[in-house]
Design brief:
The structure is a homotetramer.
Chain A (H helix, E strand, L loop, with lengths): L2 H11 L14 H4 L7 E6 L4 E5 L5 E2 L4 H13 L19 H6 L10 H14 L3 H13 L8 H9 L2 H12 L7 H12 L2 E2 L1 H12 L14 H14 L5 H7 L4 E3 L4 E6 L3 E6 L10 H14 L5
Antiparallel strand pairs in A: 1-2, 1-7, 3-4, 5-6, 6-7
Amino acid sequence: MDYQRILAEINSEISPSQFNGKVAAYIPELANVPADQFGMHICCLQGGNYAIGAQTTPFSIQSISKVFSLTLALLYEGTALWERVDVEPSGDPFNSLVQLEYENGIPRNPLINAGALVISDILVSHLKDPKKDYLAFIRKIAGNPDIDFNLKVAASEKKWGYRNSALINLMKSFGNIKNDIEEVLDFYFHKCSIEMSCQALAQTFLLYANRGCLLDSHEKILSPTQTKRINAIMQTCGFYDEAGEFSFRVGLPGKSGVGGGIAAIHPGKYSVVVWSPKLNPKGNSSMGMAALELLTTKSGLSIF
Amino acid sequence: MDYQRILAEINSEISPSQFNGKVAAYIPELANVPADQFGMHICCLQGGNYAIGAQTTPFSIQSISKVFSLTLALLYEGTALWERVDVEPSGDPFNSLVQLEYENGIPRNPLINAGALVISDILVSHLKDPKKDYLAFIRKIAGNPDIDFNLKVAASEKKWGYRNSALINLMKSFGNIKNDIEEVLDFYFHKCSIEMSCQALAQTFLLYANRGCLLDSHEKILSPTQTKRINAIMQTCGFYDEAGEFSFRVGLPGKSGVGGGIAAIHPGKYSVVVWSPKLNPKGNSSMGMAALELLTTKSGLSIF
Amino acid sequence: MDYQRILAEINSEISPSQFNGKVAAYIPELANVPADQFGMHICCLQGGNYAIGAQTTPFSIQSISKVFSLTLALLYEGTALWERVDVEPSGDPFNSLVQLEYENGIPRNPLINAGALVISDILVSHLKDPKKDYLAFIRKIAGNPDIDFNLKVAASEKKWGYRNSALINLMKSFGNIKNDIEEVLDFYFHKCSIEMSCQALAQTFLLYANRGCLLDSHEKILSPTQTKRINAIMQTCGFYDEAGEFSFRVGLPGKSGVGGGIAAIHPGKYSVVVWSPKLNPKGNSSMGMAALELLTTKSGLSIF
Amino acid sequence: MDYQRILAEINSEISPSQFNGKVAAYIPELANVPADQFGMHICCLQGGNYAIGAQTTPFSIQSISKVFSLTLALLYEGTALWERVDVEPSGDPFNSLVQLEYENGIPRNPLINAGALVISDILVSHLKDPKKDYLAFIRKIAGNPDIDFNLKVAASEKKWGYRNSALINLMKSFGNIKNDIEEVLDFYFHKCSIEMSCQALAQTFLLYANRGCLLDSHEKILSPTQTKRINAIMQTCGFYDEAGEFSFRVGLPGKSGVGGGIAAIHPGKYSVVVWSPKLNPKGNSSMGMAALELLTTKSGLSIF
């Protein structure tokens, strides 16, 4: 497959200025990101990296980090994890407080905020120095020692994080948060503030395309079954209230973030990351979805 | 792949009596089906049929029929269909009345009852003689002129169908049902009463594994894009509130019914139908899910 | 208390054209009622009738009829009634389908539609010829043999009654409707179509101000305890999602209808009915509420 | 009316041990209160105090304090208050997070927790030294300089107050909390920890029976209209999800607390406080409700 040609075609057919949508505006650090940017990077398991645009520009990965924290929590907690968080799509166009309440503090899945807060609580229980150890894990699977938190973003998230505070307090009232709320929130907001480029993220997501193994060292991080579980969850829960639309249009498991990034994989074939900051009304990158749709259409390959 | 050997292994490793669960009991015709039955049938695109157990026994396909009516409605209505029904998972462990109300009578997807009622309304609008024409379509894509409604089941469904009446009346109050309610319900209940064996159903589902074409005649029923859309919807919405669990354990797009059947496909490879009447608490066949999980585990193939 | 003077003051201080609001428009018979009408009638227990405006014009009493059907159902069913309908305010700005579902088909109170449908079901069970017997009861407590259904209104209500059909089907699925749905709905829609003037309604509501006895004949219809229960329910549940506002502004138990009527009582003192068709956004007569507020303000008397 | 005789009859007819129910157990300070206690105190506007049982024993007034904070907030904020909190019953058997979310952070009324948190926020904005000034206000309207917080109760409430933290964070996310969350919660939990006896509380509630004036000094605290509003809110919202039941059984405006106290008034006649720690499943004192029902039944007087 001539991925470089496909990327060039995508780049010539669509551009950020054509897309509607707004940059996330709930914190100034995200609101100030120039809207009309675009980058895309593909890493193939059989070797080969293909890229276009601002693919080396770091951006705030935000909710994409939920995939990494789920990965690390699975390593520590194993299947016991699923007693504290479910694996079903949330289907809730509104916030998940309602569902949390009816389901006694058990979040629908680990990729919504409530679920990621429980995962953060689990990591705070297991990690000696949670922020430092988490960063070390990301750097390891990314093969990249420069990845770091953006402390200004973390501080801003915390300052405006009332809704996450509401979620975590509600879960604590149901007994599904074990650690101190402030400590878990601090870890959670740092986790979301990590900055990576399309290139670095695609490199990291290879793990999920490669049955849980690092490509270069062949080190096994996850078992094939654990990898399958994570991919299945990305497929059904990775795009807020647009998982069905993404499944159809793109047909790959993936995860988006409000920073405008989308990471996706074709199991056994490649990982791909696209970044463009303007978000559609459901919170996913407008141009990102279009670019990925073009990729699977032009390559004729999706999981369906 | 030696599917016949895999089926034999499944048959020797698990049996219906090992599984908990109850046969659907809301109408006598389903309640009286002997619980400890099991059949399974695989049709490969490259030729080859593999089967085991009661795979020629007809059973009530129930909600599996929703895939066929979605198919036929797409042929008549095209993408205009998506203005009247969404494509997102419902994530609602309860009945969908709540969600319908908040979303102004637009069902979350065509595979939940509310969505299938809208699809039925669309078919009643387009078909000259809805029940007869629908049956003709099923017989055609199944290549089987003997497929028929079970009129006793249809009558029983109607007699106890208060919740479906509530759903359709609510949608009618929002203007999302165009025809007479009684006529749509009558069509809907007939549609659900169709009886097919594992063999016949697997033969019919080949269509979705084969990019929308009938295997024998090469006649194109659906475009590849329409097929992909239907498969994506099955993946995210085909298993009530267990779509995530099914995605992980089995990893194939599919649809289950309260008659105990599950039809699934591996795009480009095969269709498979399993039937065993005992249902787990979420309404899916207990042994059916286990058998499909063994199939994808033993064959080492899933979409993830 | 010089009620006639107070009514004259109200009539000079406010007029229908000053009020915003729309006439109920879901059926043509209500939509065509001229908006700028107003009538008011007070009946004192100590004797004395005071009236102003179009107080002898018949209007559609609609939900005010729920008080009469509750009364008749209590006579037949006694306290067993409260096993099938609760007595708490619904507090739901939306339709009550959600609450019905979470509370297993038990309506919050007998003055919302769901509750009134259960009450209608109870009456259909007890009355030999429900519509005829119900009318006879109203005529008796009203002391007025001319009160009748408006058959065109009943037919229109039925034609557009999808939401009520949804409610009753949902309750039937929970087992809280015992009779045939069509028969109960037919009775319900007839009941709502009764037409009465302010004068006739005020005369009838004297019963609730007079501890359950007819004023002229002294015949006891309800026990004091039954009367107190009905009055308490009117106080907390009689005004859709505006019971709290009405309690404060007017401070009397009462019931409104979408025909623009409001009937209220001051226990031990008087009954009062006001009618003006324009409704505020919560479905209560705009001028009706203002007129009653002036009445209790000017008379210096409310229950608080 | 011979209230002392009525109290003696109540005392001989019912006793705490006859009643089912559990003492509030979410904090140890409440859980350790001996269950089988009972006290009752009536203050008449025309003079005369009548009492029985443990009527001078201080207990935790808990939610009854919401009436006092509403009173003080009305004095500072006037009708602008109603832009931040509604006056309708909540009708929600579950927690109010759901309703808060659908209604954009505006609580249904000032007597549920969410509403009382908004009221606390308003007081924190207006009072120079919130806890001290609030206590001074209570002491003044109570005519009792000894009333005080129970600091152990306040600390325990804070320690287990995750659900209140969830509520206040959610409202803060909607912009309906202006001050620092920790400061508002600290004030709120102190407010709930106030201890008063039946005697002291009844003395204080005379204000609401007396059109807003202190009985002894004739000092006007609230206008008659403000008093009427507060009484109307108590009538429709003062008993969690049992306001309708209380309206019927007792027929007086009032407010209960999980400490087992209930304060009620008969406007123009008397105030009454009853205390007995065992709570019914809806959170109101079992014996308290029975005792008040006997009072209005035996005296033949209620507002209905």
